[in-house]
Amino acid sequence: MHVLFLLIAVLSQTLAFNAPSGVSTWCGKPYMSTNHSLNPGGQFQFPVLQSEPLLYVTIQPRYSIFLESDKNGTFIVDASISHFFGGSYKNVTYNIPGSNISSPFTTLNIEIYNEELGALIVTNKVSVNSTANLIGFSFSSFPARLEPYSVSILATSPDRQQSYTAITKIYVLPSREYGSAVKIDNLFGGLYVQNAKNNWNDWYGIFPNGYYADGSYVTPNNLFG
């Protein structure tokens, strides 16, 4: 078993770095002046540009975690027009299904579900080609626990002939009475903390930073002169 593990590790390194046998490497890269450049592999596969517009609907929680004491939460819903991601979008919706009377498709009907229970959490409307739409919801369908809940969104045209789906996960954790809790704001990117400083009541913003040290020993004296 140990020999097999070593063999797999060696083969993995060889495939990862793509270095021919006998070529000395440092951190996976040939470093001798006599070595030729090698294709490292692992290039990104870029999406294919689509000629027709697509509607890209996504959903995520406003914050990376919620606490039971928050009582309610917020989803961020995006519905952007894209030529790379999403589902087919036709800018038309029929006032009466099956008729020729139509209107521009500019508004999405939103339904958000707790996948575990199959329960409808909230309904709303958002504009086509809009982002950062905030949709509030209650924790009534989400008892506090350590495991995440799966949440899905169904977005449809007014005539329901065009539909789009997406999924996300949310954490609704038990309230704190000791230690601290930190959450990330997925809308603006900030950090919020709850701890003894505010008696575990609500949240306050923080600006994290690393340690500070005098770098003069590596900084030329005239760098800022």
Characteristics:
225 residues; mainly beta; four-stranded antiparallel beta sheet; 1 helix; 17 strands; flat; disordered N terminus
> Mean pLDDT, nearest integer?
86
Question: Which fold name corresponds to the CATH topology of the domain at 54-174?
Answer: Immunoglobulin-like
Helix content range: under 10%
Strand sequence of the main sheet, in spatial order? 6-3-5-11
Architecture per CATH nomenclature, i.e. the level-2 architecture of the domain at 54-174? Sandwich
Q: Could you state the order of secondary-structure elements as H and E?
A: HEEEEEEEEEEEEEEEEE
CATH top level class name of the domain at 54-174: Mainly Beta
Summarize the main sheet: 4 strands, antiparallel
Q: Give the count of helical stretches.
A: 1
The total count of strands amounts to: 17
Could you tell me how far the N terminus lies from the C terminus, measured between alpha carbons in angstroms?
Answer: 63 Å
Give Rg in angstroms: 26 Å
Low-confidence stretches: 1-16
Classification by helices and strands: mainly beta
Shape descriptor:
flat
Strand content: 35-45%
